[in-house]
Amino acid sequence: MEHIEITSYDDCLVSCLDEPSVDHWRVRTDDPEFLSAFIDVLQEEDPVGKRIEWLCDQDVIKGLEKNFVRAAKASDLVTESTLTIRESTDAAPNTPTVLVSPERTVSLLPVGDGEAVQIDITEEAACERLWEKYQSEWDIAMPHSIDTPPYSRLVTMAEQKLGDGVGADIDTAYTAVESRSPDEQPEPVTVSLLVGAKHELLLNDIVDWAETSTLATQGTVSKLKQRLEEFDIIATESKSVGVGRPRQRLVFSDESMQSLPADELLAHVQGVLA
User: Fold this and answer.
1) Residue 77 sits in a domain of what CATH number?
2) What separation in angstroms does the CA of 90 have from each of 6, 18, 138, 140?
3) What pLDDT is stored for residue 247 in this prediction?
4) d(C-alpha 145, C-alpha 61), whole Å
5) Which of these three, 125, 143, 161, is where a domain ends?
6) Which residues does 264 contact at the CB level (< 8 Å), separation at least 6?
7) 121 plus 44 within the same structural domain
8) Per-residue pLDDT, 260
9) Measured between alpha carbons, how far is residue 79 from residues 61, 159, 167, 188 in Å?
10) Which of 38, 139, 188, 221 has the lowest CB atom count within 10 Å?
11) The domain containing residue 16 runs over which residues?
């Protein structure tokens, strides 16, 4: 049997994940908007006991990873074993988006603005044939790992290593970044340095957090700090710590920036850097 309706990506995904009779979904898509919606829904729904697998072309995955925050949140899901990703070896342009299980298949035909015509197939023989087809593709596909550090690791470690409120401000700033196109997104380390200056953190502490969380190396942090200094956005003050050389504390060149919320701070600086 078939059922056809127009629905949003979010509503379709929630419906699929809440389906009690299905505990294993395999997704085949080349739609970046759909994958982005799926990341949000998976994080909100936390589908315990469900196996979720993505089968995507290499270019689609590379496109997803250009958006740092999206990639970091997908990395979270992979780390938590909620999601498994493989690269298809059978690249096919304009691949329809399908969610396949042995019990139910959902096909989505996008109509724009995050909505699609949803076609539900529950006829047993049809579902079995479709599952066999995508099982064969999955078996020969290449496992894919996301190099971006998990989002929750970045935020949690910032709060633990850098002080109260720092993790929340980094979360706010990264959320503001996420809504922009990849070409307009500042480096994640640049965002972190701005939050560091807002909290007047020691540069060494930022470096330690970046390296421990695998966000960036000391060299990358230093290079991007220098760029912000060249634009007269941040400066450093020497702070004596007793023994050894004084440490560098990050501050804003313009003290009025100190009071800006993290998202407004980012927007202001982005205008200067553009």
Assistant:
1) 3.30.870.10
2) 29, 30, 10, 9
3) 83
4) 10
5) 143
6) none
7) yes
8) 92
9) 17, 20, 20, 20
10) 139
11) 2-143
